[in-house]
Design goal:
The protein is an all-alpha fold and 289 residues long. The protein is built from 13 helices and no strands.
Length: 289
């Protein structure tokens, strides 16, 4: 069985978005916000724990290097191995873009739904789908009967020797804890209270931005008019109350404390990740050269 395709490791924190929420009836479109964009703040958001996990781009680099080495191994077995298409660096979503519920640039068009994947991301996802449909003989040669062997195991050994793959357990645990802890910080509660007052004036009843984004009503194939109206009001209220700025500052402080308290496992995880990434970049540089 093939390995799972790359996903941002901060996705675990997004599970916390699944909260219950209430909405009011659809209202007139809220005026567009002025000043620094909430979306720009979300795109630029960097948190201290980010250093201890791989970005999507770094995960792609490790997969691409592994592909190069697997291709040689598979060729020795008389089988073709097609490398995954590269993703354009401009198409990689920032690591914390959706962390506080600020999800979409074009809220008028997509509401809380994600915009369509860029072409290079679509091509890579399609290539993963094609791999999962490979004949059983090719699957066994690539991944072994257990899914942990075959040419993939050979490629990993050539890449980093006996170094185990990156382990993000400590990161996942701490990033989720930091998000929930920061949510209860006094200054964040105050900002969320102001956001809720703003939303109430616009005719909506949600406890916080995560509840607005995670409303089950938005689990539709296409965004509805009510969803787009809610998302626009959400963005406007986030802008006027500074939720992202306040929340990220609180979480930054909390993450730094958690890093100090968990220095040993985080240091080990980062060292392992850095070794894999450095080895992957050497392989990619040789191949590109």
């Amino acid at each position: 069985m093939s390995p799972s395709r790359a996903r941002a490791t901060t996705a675990l924190a997004l599970l916390l978005l699944a909260t219950t929420a209430c909405t009011a009836a659809e209202h007139e479109s809220t005026p567009a916000p002025h000043g620094p964009s909430v979306i720009r703040q979300a795109k630029q958001l960097r948190l201290p724990l980010d250093a201890y996990a791989s970005t999507v781009a770094e995960t792609h680099a490790m997969e691409d290097a592994e592909d190069i080495l697997m291709r040689r191994c598979m060729a020795d077995l008389g089988m073709e191995w097609k490398p995954l298409p590269r993703v354009d660096v401009r198409d990689v979503e920032p690591p914390n873009f959706r962390r506080y519920g600020a999800e979409e640039v074009e809220v008028d068009r997509y509401g809380y739904h994600p915009s369509p994947d860029p072409p290079s991301v679509t091509r890579r996802n399609q290539a993963w789908d094609e791999r999962e449909a490979l004949p059983a003989e090719v699957q066994r040669a690539a991944y072994g009967r257990s899914g942990e062997g075959g040419c993939r195991k050979t490629a990993q050994r050539e890449l980093v020797g006996d170094t185990a793959p990156p382990d993000y357990q400590a990161f996942n645990r701490l990033t989720g804890k930091a998000l929930e802890t920061s949510r209860r910080a006094p200054e964040v509660r105050d900002a969320i209270r102001k956001w809720r007052t703003c939303m109430t004036k616009a005719g909506f009843d949600y406890p916080d931005p995560l509840a607005a984004a995670g409303n089950e009503r938005w689990q539709t194939d296409e965004p509805t008019p009510a969803e787009r109206t809610t998302a626009r009001a959400d963005m406007t209220c986030q802008q006027s109350t500074g939720v992202v700025k306040v929340w990220s500052a609180a979480e930054t402080r909390i993450q730094r404390r958690l890093i100090e308290e968990n220095a040993d496992p985080l240091h080990e995880a980062k060292a392992r990740k850095d070794r894999w990434l450095a080895a992957s970049r050497r392989v990619l540089n040789r191949d590109d050269g």
